[in-house]
Design a protein that fits this description.
Mg(2+) 2 binds at residues 29, 76. This protein is of the alpha+beta class. The protein has helices at residues 33-39, 48-64, 93-115, 139-168, 174-181, 186-195, 205-209, 226-237, 252-264, 277-282, 285-288, and strands at 23-30, 68-74, 77-82, 129-136, 211-216, 266-270. It has a six-stranded antiparallel beta sheet, sandwiched between helices. The chain is globular. Bound molecules: 2'-deoxyguanosine-5'-triphosphate (DGT) and magnesium ion (MG) (4 copies).
Length: 291
């Protein structure tokens, strides 16, 4: 490409790489979904179709970006976790975030008719999402972040379910329901729901726990022709040396192989506790990032 006198403007671009060796969480959130959920008549307090659509779009993002190890979704938000060793887009924050936001939004809009067959999207009320990236230096910090989101899910869902039980089953006005719940703890909210004919324990796990997505290698099927693809990758790079001083960096060949196995592994969705150790102990490959 020829140099032009305009080319100096490139120098205005800011480098914005995210700190090496940290877990990168990109959280996206629906813009104005309070209004959007009213407009498209989402069921209250939870609309299963809306959550299933969020999860389908989240899984599509996981499929498109093998460097993601896990995602967690509640309400109109999704948190995506890039492995700490990722070198995707030279770890540039804007690229890592905007790629997730646009991929997610595309799938959300594309899949909408499957989940809301009788409710077409309207111009002027398109689903859009914002996004931000945050680095977490330790697995402890990362797990605390995810625990924070799951506790939020629990608190919000307990409140919203109690609120709507008082309205829909208890015949209250919004103001009265709000006053009834003001200052109550979880046990008292459960009690209030129970006396109004709803056993919170019987609510769907997807509402109570949110959704965690991760790669399940047991769902993986053998990769057809993987040996050819692998050997041509070796031939094209010509070398197998490790160009980085980071201890866990894999060779190009091994990285390619890993990427392929990640793409082929099924993305599993579960509605379970991710706060306690059990989830992580039973699935050690998620944070090791090695299949
Ligand atoms: P934002 O994020 O600042 O642009 O504003 P909102 O309106 O998106 O607010 P946010 O993200 O804090 O809260 C999510 C809203 O989406 C909340 O008003 C409830 C609504 N929403 C999400 N999922 C459902 C659902 O399944 N059913 C119903 N009825 N509403 C939902
Ligand atoms: Mg918000
Ligand atoms: Mg929102
Ligand atoms: Mg939200
Ligand atoms: Mg381009």
């Amino acid at each position: 490409m020829a140099n032009s006198k305009y080319e100096y403007v490139r120098e205005f671009e800011q480098a914005e790489p995210l700190l090496k060796n940290t877990w990168i969480v990109v959280r996206i959130d629906g813009r104005g979904f309070h209004r959007l959920s009213t407009k498209y008549q989402f069921e209250k307090p939870n609309d299963k179709r809306a959550l299933d659509l969020m999860n389908a779009a989240g899984a599509a993002v996981m499929n498109e970006l093998p460097d993601l190890v896990l995602a967690y979704g509640i309400s109109d938000e999704y948190s995506f976790v890039y492995h700490k060793d990722t070198t995707l887009f030279e770890r540039r924050a804007a690229k890592l975030t905007s790629t997730i936001v646009s991929t997610f939004t595309s799938y959300y809009v594309f899949l909408w008719p499957q989940y809301f067959p009788d409710t077409p999207l309207l111009l002027g009320m398109m689903p859009t999402f914002d996004g931000r990236a945050v680095c977490y230096p330790t697995i402890g910090n990362l797990r605390d972040y995810l625990s924070w989101r799951q506790v939020d899910c629990h608190i919000n869902n307990t409140y919203n379910t109690a609120f709507w039980t008082l309205i829909l089953k208890g015949g209250m006005e919004a103001r009265e329901a709000e006053q009834t719940l003001s200052g109550t703890n979880t046990g008292q909210k459960n009690e209030i729901m129970y006396t109004n004919g709803l056993n919170y324990n019987n609510e769907l796990e997807i509402y109570k726990k949110g959704t965690v997505l991760y790669r399940d290698y047991e769902l993986a099927h053998p990769i057809e022709g993987s040996s050819e693809i692998l050997s041509s990758a070796v031939a094209s790079t010509g070398t197998d040396t490790i160009a980085s001083s980071l201890p866990e960096e894999l060779s190009k060949t091994a990285q390619e192989k890993e990427k392929k196995s990640k793409r082929k592994a099924g993305v599993k969705a579960e509605h379970i506790d991710i706060i306690k150790d059990e989830f992580w102990q039973r699935r050690p490959w998620i944070l090791s990032g090695r299949s």
